[in-house]
Amino acid sequence: MNQDFDADVIVVGSGALGSNAAFELAKLGKSVIILEAGEHIPRWKIVENFRNSSNKGNYNSPYPNEPWAHHSYDEQYIENTGSFEFRPGMLKLVGGTTWHWAAACWRYLPNDMKLKTLYGVGRDWPLEYSELEPYYVRAEIALGVCGSDTQDQSGQGGGAFPPRSSPYPMAPEGDTYLFQRLRERMAPAGYHFIHEPNGRATEPYDGRPACSGNNNCMPVCPIGAMYSGDVHARHAEQAGAKLITDATAYKLEKGADDKIVAIHYRSSTGADVRLTAKYFIVAAHGLETPKLLLISEVANSSDQVGRNLMDHTGQGLQFIADEPLWPGRGAVQQGGIFNRRDGEFRKERASVKHSISNNVPNIAVAKRLIAQGVYGKELDERIRHDAARWVDVSTVYETLPLQTNTVRPSRTRKDALGIPMLVVNYEVGDYVKAAKSGVTEDYAHFVQLMGGTVVEDNTGYQNRDHLMGTVIMGANPKDSVVNHECRTHDHANLFLATTGVIPASGTINPTLAGVALSIRMADIIAREV
Amino acid sequence: MGLLKFPLLALLLTALPVFAAEDTDALIEKGAYVARAGDCEACHRTAENGGAPLAGGYVIDSPMGKIISSNITPSKAYGIGDYTEQQLADALRKGINAKGQHLYPAMPYTSYQGMSDDDIHALYVYLQQGVKAVDQPVPETHLAFPFNIRQLMFGWNLVFLDNQGFVPKPGATEQTSRGQYLVDNLAHCGACHTPRNALMAEDNSQYLAGARLGGWVAPNITSDKVSGLGDWSEDDLVNFLKNGHLADKAQAAGGMAEAVENSFRFLSDSDLHAMAAYLHSVPPIRDPGQTERIVRDVKPVDMSALETGQGDQASLADATGLDGARLYNSACSSCHGRDGQGSADKFYPSLSLNTALNGNQANNLVMAIIAGIDRKGADGAVNMPALGGDLNDAQIAAIANYSLQTFGNPALSVSSEEVTSLRRGGDTPLLITAMPYLLWGGGLLALVLVIVLVLWRRHHQHLRAVEAKRIALNRRFHSN
Amino acid sequence: MITRRKLLYSGAALTGAGLFAPLWAGVALAQEVSSAASDDVESFRQLSMFLLERPSLDAALSLRILAQCTQNDPEFPQKMKALWSKVGQHHVRSVGQLSGSPFYRDPVIKDTTQKIVSAWYLGYTGTPVSLRATDGTRLVTFTGALAYQPTADATVIPTYSRGKTNYWVNPPATLAND
Question: Rg of chain B over CA atoms, in angstroms?
Answer without folding.
Answer: 30
